[in-house]
Design goal:
This protein has about 140 residues and is an alpha+beta fold. The chain is about 30% helix and about 15% strand. It binds zinc ion (ZN).
């Protein structure tokens, strides 16, 4: 589902996430895709179209997240909320592995989000390895 998002609000969200995916932190400039404005709480669950409920997402994360708000934590097999990029800090829930080609979920939220959004697909890790060689990864985001 889509909703009108003013260009001023789009700029604000792009600035907030430094033109990177709020989930997998891929930098849009390193891809050939246009990133999308994602409703963190989906419109179908009465999520609002405002700064607090929008983030920038790569098409892959956006597609896998879809209208979900929870997923299974692969460690405990319990249902966990998905990461909320506006209310939670990425580094509280995720970390890069030693060579920064994979994202490690540090919490139930992090692990469930990594699994549901398939953030460590083999092709993604391969591409991250190339970006590391180019000195373009990982991105610096506050
Ligand atoms: Zn992503």
């Amino acid at each position: 589902m889509s909703a009108y998002i003013s260009s001023a609000l789009q700029r604000q969200i792009r600035d907030r996430f430094a033109n990177c995916c709020a989930y997998c932190r891929t930098a849009e400039a390193l891809t050939v895709t246009t990133f999308e404005f994602e409703h963190i709480v989906p419109l179908s669950a009465d999520g609002t179209t405002d700064f607090e409920n929008l983030c920038l997402a790569c098409p892959t994360c956006n597609r896998h997240k879809a209208n979900r708000q929870t997923a299974i934590d692969p460690e405990s097999q319990a249902v966990a909320p998905l990461f909320h990029p506006q209310q939670q800090s990425w580094s509280d829930h995720f970390a890069w592995n030693a060579d920064t080609t994979e994202i490690i979920g540090l919490t139930a939220i992090g692990r469930a989000t990594v699994a549901m959004l398939k953030m460590n697909r083999p092709q993604m890790s391969r591409v991250r390895r190339m970006w590391v060689k180019l000195g373009e990864h990982p991105p610096e985001i506050g």
